[in-house]
Amino acid sequence: MFAKWVQSWRDLPMKYNQWCSVMRWEKTTRPFLRTAEFWWQEGHTVHATAEEAQEETLQMLEVYREVCEDVLSIPVFAGRKSDKEKFAGARATYSVEAMMQDGKALQAATSHNFGTNFSEPFEIQFLDKDGALKYCHETSWGASTRLIGALIMTHGDERGLRLPPKVAPLQVVILPIAAHKGGVMDVCEDAFAQLKGAGIRVKLDDRDHVTPGWKFNEWELKGVPLRLEIGPRDIANGVASYMRRDTLEKGTLALDNLTQGVADLLEDIQGTLLAQARAFMDEKTRDVFTMEELAAQVDGGYARAMWCGERECEDNVKEETGATTRNMPFDQTPFADTCAACGKKAQHVMYFARSY
């Protein structure tokens, strides 16, 4: 279709984004991570020059990093894939790699620079300003519902989900305590109206057929970031009691400044979840200098190593340790002269890890 759509330099850049479901024949499925059918967002772009295509490739990688870290509170390693791990037909593949709580890697999203590898066989050409017919440079990039699995596996704990406020369907739940006593429901409804009016996703759980304890467990299981409890004693003190889902910390907020207090807490919860996940990732990532160290480190973590860049060495690491190359960070400052896996002259800094 691009070969039909693209005729002139005036048609470029052409950028196409789609959201759709995809079917794949997976021998072994995993919920969210590798399913037979999944939803994804995928983009394809066509450019006049190699420089524009590379700029687009890296821009979209940054978009995915931002989504993971600033929205989902999932820290990631961004970098370039090895030739073995890159997308078939791409000149270069870049990825953002997350770490799950068992220390395994999860490829969260990818961005590919195709160069002219597809435009040449499919005759995607354009008439440039100089009157010459030239091949286009293409990119492709995507993320899928795998990010939901990453969200669950990065933040979940023994109580259930822990959702970052920016993506939580419900950011706050209000629980009346001793709702039958005078004034309690009035204050709860007023608090609900204030928060909803401020654009906060809030629910007033006024069910009377389950106990407060039942409600506590249910909303913790569902990962609601902030729980507010309002009872006669709270009203007498002019406060609402709260519990944060991220740290399980309890405290109070003044009822006369409830909206601002809730907004501040939600912002802090968002940042705390990212900080917790980053601290875990940092703790489980270390530099290695020998094959023995690499094998030990990937048993529940990431190994940052100097690598020779050879396919044979990469295959050997996978055979001996079960780990694969994840990506080469953009900071390629060497910290050793030789490859940790084979001892040859090192060419790249590379992250190794076992993956899903």
Give the distance, in angstroms, between the N- and C-terminal Cα atoms.
34 Å
- What is the CATH third-level topology name of the largest domain? BirA Bifunctional Protein, domain 2
**Low-pLDDT stretches:** none
Quaternary form: single chain
Beta-strand content = 25-35%
Indicate the radius of gyration in whole angstroms.
Answer: 25 Å
- Per CATH, the superfamily of the largest domain is Bira Bifunctional Protein, Domain 2
What would CATH call the class of the largest domain?
A: Alpha Beta
Instruction: State the domain count.
Output: 3
Count of runs of 4 or more consecutive helical residues: 9
Strands ordered across the widest β-sheet: 1-2-8-5-4-3-17
Measured as a percent range, the helix fraction is 25-40%
Per the principal axes of the C-alpha atoms, what is the gross shape?
globular
What structural class do the secondary elements suggest?
alpha+beta
> Mean pLDDT score, rounded?
97
CATH architecture of the largest domain: 2-Layer Sandwich
Report the order of strands and helices.
HEEHEEEEEEHEHEHEHEEHEHEHEEE
